[in-house]
Amino acid sequence: MYRFSNTVIGFLNLFTLLASIPIIGGGLWMARSSTTCESFLQTPLLVVGFVVLIISLAGFIGACFNVAWALWLYLVVMLFLIGTLLGLTIFGFVVTSQGGGVEVPGRVYKEYQLEKYSSWLKSRIKDPHYWSTIRSCILGSNTCAQIAFWTPLDYLERDMTPIQSGCCKPPTSCNYATATMMTQDADCYRWNNAPNLLCYECDSCKAGVLEHIRRDWHKLSVLNIVMLVLLIGIYSIGCCAFRNTRRSETDYPHGENRMSKVRPRWDFYWWRWWYDRKNQLY
User: Fold this and answer.
1) Which one, 101, 148, 231, 280, has least CB within 10 Å?
2) Contact 82, 228 (CB under 8 A)
3) Distance CA 206, CA 131 (A)
């Protein structure tokens, strides 16, 4: 009778095999697009899609056709994926544990400060090439155009996303009404009314992007934990399927003697000699 674990692994891998096709298709579609944000995401999508495709194909063939080496490859890669996902989850919680918004008196929205975030995130966001890519993404998304026609009352009563708060306006503490000798935030001098400039080079804009990444990373970490539990369960079933496949390759037909040689116990020859000697005497 065909074993239950092999059947379960076969169906699970058939499902993931079919699910990898739209992932790869989405990555290839993004590769054809000229939008910077989409090309920025295409590589991870393609890598994930092809890895899922290869793993699922190996697991499906190994479980359904009793191919031990395919299941062995499947389990090795699955173990690597579980370890990688666990490491990424822990790393994500560590680098996103710092940060958060600062309350602005009399306003609904919050403002964000770059120095509150982890050193790893700050070093990434300050990299000119990396920031140029993100800046192009913000410009292409028309995020700031959504609040371009807000009235002063809107700024008092309406909330903003972290990117809108940091990139689309100067810090609330800035004073442009009269000439002042008081020291202001450096972002106050980086602000420009031009739609393609605004506060895109401000530290507050970079902090707003990091806050957006931090929130998304927390959501992704929760999903990673769910995926880890699922993968560990699938890996356990896969180990049972691998054991069943190895047995099917080595088991003999029912009723056939499977022992070709038997090694006698250490005292066998002594007892044999004693038994023969006794028979000779009598």
Assistant:
1) 280
2) yes
3) 8
Place of tokens 């000798």: 181
- Per-residue model confidence as pLDDT tens for the chain (282 residues): 446 666 777 777 777 777 667 667 766 765 554 444 545 456 665 777 688 788 888 887 877 777 778 778 888 888 887 888 788 788 888 888 888 899 999 999 999 999 999 999 999 899 998 899 889 888 888 889 989 889 989 999 999 999 999 999 999 988 887 665 578 889 999 999 999 999 999 999 999 999 988 988 888 778 778 778 877 887 787 787 777 777 665 544 444 444 445 555 555 666 666 667 766 665
Q: Are 21 and 54 in contact (CB under 8 A)?
A: no
Residue pair 87/99 in contact (Cβ under 8 Å)? The answer is no
